[in-house]
Amino acid sequence: MTDSIPVIDLKPLFEDGDAGRLAVAREIGEACRGIGFFYLKGHGVPAERRESVFAMARTFFESPDDLKMKTAYSRDTGNRGYVPMKGESLDPTKAPDLKEGYNIGLDLAEDDPEILARAPLRALNLWPDVPGFREIMLDYYDAMLSLGRTLHTAFATELGLDPDFFDDKLRRPLATLRLLHYPESPAEMEEGQLGAGEHTDYGCVTLLATDDAGGLEVRTRDGEWLSAPYIPDTFICNIGDCLMRWTNDLYVSTPHRVINPSGRERYSVPFFLDPDPDAIVACLPGCSGEDSPAKYPPIRGDDYLLSRLNPTYEKSGLVTGAIN
After folding, report:
1. What's the confidence (pLDDT) of residue 187?
2. What domains, with CATH codes, occur in the chain?
3. Where is the Fe2OG dioxygenase domain (predicted)?
């Protein structure tokens, strides 16, 4: 086990057939069973595509408050829309996080059956009056979803499953693209307040793009905080609680936090890949045995995500509720 964050090249998985997939899967599996984080290069997402998302995020967050609040996150927006400064507490025991955000989910039509049924965590996306915003965000969302599905072929391979094992569990996933803006660290902050409080992510895997401001810290197995520096043209990936549960804790969901940088703002764009709402999260084949019985009962993907989201927003009154 290592307390460093490895850099893994995904290119062999795309270009070297079964041998490349096996080699990449081994590297990813080692990281997932160890520190739970890894950098990903060779991912195939053009830098220009990411830069356009960051530029649009800055445009949105610099907009007047009345424009942003027209798309405000609420109990009824299905984990979509604008979350104002201090609107969430990733560590509910501490002061609210010093950041603002914007959530985008799977883009569904008004007549989609899940929309008409008001299914949990399904809703129409909220789009601000910012030219080009919707097109740029949906293009990036699609790229991240494709990359996340590709990563799951490596997870399945490393776990001894068919490479396509997760395909039917990620058809219409509860995946969320988030735009985040952290102000520079103020002279005075509430006790225990951070940009993002100590937490683990909720889903299967997170694909994070950041600017070069720094601030992300990962907690090692020894309880020390390890800085995750900016590396150009990489994503920072980490395992979430849902995949840790699926693997019976073989893969590790690692606590992390964000410290507001001193003297400058920080922007980041994470993509959280959760499974389909009706996917049953139960101990995977080969992840339990006589000496390691299954630790968790089966649960639907939407029920699990709701159980994790609501405590995050309780302080601000923005719990999602069972029906949107």
Report:
1. 66
2. 45-316 (2.60.120.330)
3. 173-275
